[in-house]
Design goal:
Oligomer: homodimer
Largest sheet of chain A: 6 strands, mixed
CATH superfamily of one domain in chain A: Glucose-6-phosphate isomerase like protein, domain 1
Low-confidence stretches of chain A: none
CATH class of one domain in chain A: Alpha Beta
Distance between the termini of chain A: 55 Å
Strand content of chain A: 5-15%
Number of strands of chain A: 15
CATH architecture of one domain in chain A: 3-Layer(aba) Sandwich
Largest interface: A-B, 159 and 160 residues
CATH topology of one domain in chain A: Rossmann fold
Shape of chain A: globular
């Protein structure tokens, strides 16, 4: 029996609030600090580890968090989710994105069939299509191979797939699995589509139109923009486009597309990178085998997330420490700082994943909550960020918890030795140095050169960023966000906050405005 | 006589704290709201306007802010700055970035010459060099024209120039001033350099090495990486590289470069886009005339920033409202949301500009301050953000002030009409709708569909993003950050917070570690 209760009504949260806070600068110093780094480390899927030594926890805090996990039934709620309960209470939908990469529990039957079989069938259909594009069975009208794939989508149909593409582009190039260059058109700003079209050869481009409902205005607008460009080049748009949509969407059976691949209402946009939304573009860019490895990595991390012991479940542990930092210690933001240029857009994806899921003020039953929920998420790759906003992170007046990601090896295997170390060593040395600098600080009589320390961080470490570790990394954060939503007793799977803007934008376009809306519209010459 | 006092010692700040807060949802509704939008608007340089109707101000708040501006002597402090006072107290340096684009006050003589003449001479030298590259007087060893320019730099030598390049790339293409494609290498991650080199033709590439000191480890490492690639291609690196550095740097007189262009210690990296740091790459990419227009736009906005009347000085007004939101209303973050795909990396630049300048806990004399200073800055272009993190902005438990930017016209002149409106109209309708949605909210019995409103924003509106408006926009934010630093009585022009990490990274690379640092180093296999 699962109980859905607000965080502030739980006994364990009251207990957690009373635990003496950890003095991070103190406990991370000397041999004690070394011991913490050895001890506070959890294996993750695909050989990675989640090291939380520099987060503000000790045995007392961890004990309270374990109680909180138990009382809020995190493992049971996850089980209910993957077994097909209607967890998305706002939209009255199941939440099945885990099933795109594996069967974690019972079979789930809906829409007249087994959902795992449905997702697998879509992946196989995509794989067959991609293979035909790669081997030249599917070509442009002139019988020439497609060389470029362009995803047209916005939000979850853009940020996740784009981040994954950038993460694996160079890896695929050096591992000889790079098939087609990918580009992305998302913004309704016409300069976005025009700018991308300016850099590609449309005659050899295949466009993937992604819209679950088939009604996303930005995406349909950009589709028209692209169709015009194809027609102007004397090409037949229907021979250059595929659709990723739901089976009930107007796009599903249209003759406007070479083929259509399906997702469904049980997969939210921000959780759709492992569905056909990511599958089509990534399989076309890197080959279906690479996409399959990516799914394997995510599936392996999902399995780890089933563990009810928080010390053996990095996603659950990360989630709980985050709640402690947010609700007890009062930190408002979290920075995601991957020390990997390939992860340059991963923070933007996590920004959506986290903020759209947990930026809520009502619980899953629609009642206001009396505590803070999802934090602000931002980030850029290191070492770049060190030369940018880290000043505030080190010496600003607010504390921002940090999530580092680092890899022992680079992707492309090219390096240079300067001053006795490789660039990869410098990269790793920097992330290690930052963790300790943030945690321990440094005294100085000159207060301008004084570092208070006590600034928490954790690090996820892997051998290399590749399809499997990328999948595991993605799953880690998806599951972290899910567990936090459970703790806060909110529905992490709807997004009613985006609706009002849509309604008002329609009014503006219909010139059905008054008051401030009218004067602003005049200011923009609409 | 200028007085440098902490914010909390001023009378006007005490007064400001006592003014009744504005009920934004209320005042922005109905005809009152329309009147606010008409009234709370300030002309900016280059035909733009700063509209602050949806910020939480009224006549009482504005009156108190005017008193604060007067008491903290913002206009006098700016005057002292551009006339060459040592405003950067930490490093005991003048702050002269405004002089790269114009003479605002007295002549400033230093390093044996007039500084305005020095900056102008560098711009002329760059212009002459760029023209020779464009007309084929300077070529590769085979006598072929360079087609690509690659900036090697990090932090301020990367984020600003990169954001400006992306902002003007498509504009230059449609206005026939596009000369060379630009790429950027910044991260010490070897995959960054290797990835960029993989996409260019090194034989026709010109590299711009940017390091003020000539000792930035990331940049020198990437220089070596690039030189290896050039040598491996049988090319002479010294025929493919120029340096942007200070006259006293080891790079200044080196035979390793085709030419060297100078900046100096009076220009901080994050304020260097209008110096040779931005000048070389932008002049090579778009031609010196375009860079000159960009400087003109910035100079025009600088002139506006001299005005002591806050209602006629958008940068000063924006700064003061920001301080009110930060220190009195307690908001911790600010989002920058340009409705222009070309400004995709402008938020990343502003993130450095603002957080590195004002993320400080000590005043300009090195004493701790008892109030909060610079906020966290993040952002992505709209409409993309609407499908991502706006959920939290609308319905999350914390309020985040927003800075919108919008343009009436796109850059490339291509558009499509869908459902009776162009993409550009949809883009503008969306930003207008968002402002009102955030400010006014919307009641709903279903609390999951309820919008509280009262979420502040302002918008900067221009006709089109082009070199002049880009320059004015950049200057607006530079001066805003400067004025906020004055109000907080901090030194916005040093960055001691980046030092500790550097020191510890060196220790790691020298294997001179113990405690936590050693165990983390082992974890990363360093």
């Amino acid at each position: 029996m699962i109980n859905w209760n607000n965080l502030d009504t739980t006994i364990s949260y009251q207990e957690l609030s009373k635990v003496a806070p950890v003095k991070l600068a103190e406990v991370m110093s000397g041999e004690n600090g070394a011991e913490r780094v050895r001890k506070y480390s959890v294996p993750m899927a695909e050989g990675m580890v989640f090291n939380y030594a520099s987060r503000p926890v000790d045995e007392a805090v961890l004990g309270a968090l374990a109680n909180l996990a138990k009382e809020t039934q995190l493992a049971e709620k996850f089980e209910a989710l993957y077994n097909g309960e209607v967890i998305n209470t706002g939209e009255k939908r199941m939440v099945l994105h885990h099933m795109t990469r594996g069967q974690l529990g019972d079979a789930v039957v809906a829409d007249g069939g087994d959902k795992r079989a449905f997702y697998t069938a879509q992946q196989e259909k995509i794989a067959a299509f991609a293979n035909k594009v790669h081997n030249g069975e599917i070509t442009n009208a002139a019988g020439e191979k497609f060389t470029t794939v362009v995803q047209i989508g916005i939000g979850g149909s853009d940020l996740g797939p784009r981040a994954m593409y950038l993460a694996l582009e160079n890896w695929a190039k050096v591992n000889n699995t790079f098939k087609m260059e990918a580009k992305f058109i998302s913004n309704v700003d016409p300069d976005d589509a025009a700018g991308v079209l300016n850099t590609i050869d449309v005659a050899h481009s295949l466009f993937v139109l992604v819209s679950k409902s088939g009604t996303t205005l930005e995406t349909l607008t950009n589709e028209s923009f692209v169709k015009d460009a194809l027609k102007n080049a004397g090409l037949d748009p229907s021979k250059h486009m595929v659709a990723v949509t739901s089976e009930t969407s107007p796009l599903a059976k249209s003759a406007d597309y070479l083929d259509a691949f399906f997702m469904d209402d049980y997969i939210g946009g921000r959780f759709s990178s492992t569905s056909a939304v990511g599958g089509a573009v990534l399989s076309l860019a890197f080959g279906p085998e690479v996409f399959a490895q990516f799914l394997d990595g995510a599936a392996a991390a999902d399995k780890t997330a089933k563990n009810a012991n928080i010390l053996e479940n990095p996603a659950m542990l990360d989630a709980l420490i985050g709640v402690y930092e947010r609700n007890v210690l009062g930190y408002e933001s979290t920075a995601v700082l991957p020390y990997s240029q390939a992860l340059s857009r991963f923070p933007a994806h996590l920004q959506q994943l986290d903020m759209e899921s947990n930026g809520k003020s009502v619980n899953r039953f629609g009642a206001s909550v009396d505590y803070v929920t999802g934090p602000i998420i931002f980030g850029e790759p290191g070492t770049n960020g060190q030369h940018s906003f880290y000043q505030l992170l080190h010496q600003g007046t607010n504390i921002v918890p940090l999530q580092f990601v680092g890899f022992r090896n680079n992707q492309m295997g090219k390096d240079v030795v300067i001053e006795g170390s490789t660039s990869q060593q410098k990269l790793c040395a920097n992330v290690v140095a930052q963790i300790v600098a943030f945690a321990c600080g440094k005294d100085n009589e000159d207060r301008n050169k004084y570092f208070e320390g006590g600034r928490p961080s954790s690090i996820i470490v892997g051998d290399q960023l590749n399809p499997k570790t990328m999948g595991a990394l993605l799953s880690h954060f998806e599951n972290k966000v899910m567990f936090q939503g459970f703790v806060w007793n909110i529905n992490s799977f709807d997004q009613e906050g985006v609706q009002l803007g849509k309604v008002l934008a329609k009014k503006v376009l219909a010139h059905d405005t008054d008051g401030a809306l009218k004067v602003y519209s005049d200011l923009l010459n609409i």
